[in-house]
Amino acid sequence: MEVIVLGTGAADGWPSPFCECLSCADMRQHRRVRTPTAALIDGAILIDAGPAVPSAVARAGRSLRDVHHVLVTHAHPDHLDPALLLWLDWNPTPHTLHVWGPPAVVRACRDWIGPRTPVELHEVSPGDVLALPTPGGTYGASVIAARHQGCTPDEVAAEAVLYDVACPTGGRLLYATDTGLIDDVESLRDAAYDVILVEETFGDHLDHGTGHLDMSTLPVMLDRLTHVGARTDSSQVVAVHLGHHNPPEALLRDRLAVMGVRLVDDGAVLGAPRRELILGGARSGKSREAERRARNYAAVTYIATAADRPGDAEWAARVEAHRVRRPAHWRTVEGPDRVISTLRDAPAGSAVLVDCLTLWLTGVLDAASPAWDDEVALDVGAQAATKDLIDAICAAQASVFLVSNEVGMGVVPATRAGRLFADLLGRVHQEVAGACDSVTLMVAGRGLEIGERRG
Length: 455
Fold this sequence. Notes:
Blueprint: E1 3-7, H1 22-29, E2 38-41, E3 45-47, H2 53-59, E4 69-71, H3 83-90, E5 97-101, H4 103-110, E6 119-123, E7 129-134, E8 137-145, H5 153-159, E9 161-166, E10 172-176, E11 195-199, H6 218-227, E12 236-240, H7 249-258, E13 261-262, E14 268-270, E15 275-280, H8 286-294, E16 300-304, H9 313-325, E17 331-334, H10 339-345, E18 351-355, H11 357-368, H12 375-395, E19 399-405, H13 416-433, E20 438-443, E21 446-449
Parallel strand pairs: 3-4, 4-5, 5-6, 10-11, 11-12, 12-13, 15-19, 15-20, 16-17, 16-18, 18-19
Antiparallel strand pairs: 1-2, 1-14, 2-3, 7-8, 8-9, 9-10, 20-21
Helix pairs in contact: 10-12, 11-12, 12-13
């Protein structure tokens, strides 16, 4: 199951457009934006369809052409913009698009269906079990009652729902956004969700008087899910429907991590582990970019591949600067000889950040020929180590972020050893890139995505 979290924000997004609170100011200072929450499953199932969805899909490099079913939680405008059906009328799909939601959703959509719009509308109620056929198989979806802001219990049952979605090839998602505590979790017993999108709207603002979750009620929700086996150690739990009553992102990320909850960016891809290679020159921003991506994961193992350099004060200062900017809850493993074992042992749902392959290869070559004077031994050692590295990357259950220096774009090294190292590192980059989902070249703090994965 691939889940693209198209948006992670509350109704007014984060920052809120008319607000200048500390939290919103921090978001603007860092040019950060979270749009209303929505998710795309395997390109075939869209959950919630607010006005930000079309642009969010485009930013993710996707389209809605292959979507067969839209599951809408309720008719509030951040979760449903029926104008989407007008855009569909302008570019009809060859298949019927099925829109599922409570009665208010169906009512809101009817006037937007044009003469060429291939749409069928379906009313749902809590307790319904849906069969959602797609070319990739039939998904199952259970409809769960939400505790929604401003609704009486009877209105909630009729107008606001959550979804439990099961993928035909494996994988299960709980979409629990824009809701308070789920009182009846018995129907979720032993669900063992792979992904849980759970709302956390109000942060430390505890007297909001709404049905939303905050930092005091979110742990209660998680405990209930854990108690019935809906949340397990392998569940990826992601906070969504985030509003500006939360503390600034850096602080929120660390506080959520203590609960085992991830804070991810809009457009984050969940499900299968990611493998990403990030290249760049000195001070290009490659390490910071890798760290930014790894912060999307609650559990991170940082592999510092540098060997000790006793007596080198400048090097020690560089290492310390890297250490202090990493979150305190990240686990650090040091030394080039621990990369393979750490990749193999990292648990699913976590991330491993290797910084960097340049120093890892240096350690490999030091072991193969300490004086770097036996080219055959160096070549054989580099090939064998690279094969082991790629095998570990491909076998890893965790997402893997690999940082390395792009040394082949400057002047030709003046020494024989320098030229040999540049050749070997270039070969490592090519072979590792073939095992990665993406390759990014960092220049002046900005990233350029390099091509598509082959094969």
